[in-house]
Amino acid sequence: MTGGWRAMLWIVLGASLLANAVTLGLILRLGALRDAAESAGLGEGWSALPAETRSAFRKDLAESRGDFSAVLQELRQARAAMFAAAAARPFDRAAVETAQANVRTATAALQIKLQGLMLETFSEAAGKAP
What we know:
The protein has five helices and no strands. With 130 residues, the chain is an all-alpha fold. Helix 4 (65-87) runs antiparallel to helix 5. The chain is elongated and about 60 Å long. The N and C termini lie far apart (66 Å).
């Protein structure tokens, strides 16, 4: 059974690392704007926005990089704490569940921040519309 837990932890670790890489890529690489939009719930509708709005968002995102850096750091710390709790012996299920809740909170904070920036960009673009 110990081997099963180890395998599950490795799978969870791999999934978390992949999710972390995707999140970092979405925020830090402006070339991944479409993925960032999909992550924020816009999906394929992103291409329906005017090119000026998409361009304005890329600019706003670049200017906000420092703000996103802090939120991403919080997410990385929450994930590290989750894996530390999962690896602790004796295993404490409640501690792992609490750590997982902290990861969800940090992930939600990142999405809220990204969507807030989008809302500001969209609002400004709408105000400039003829």
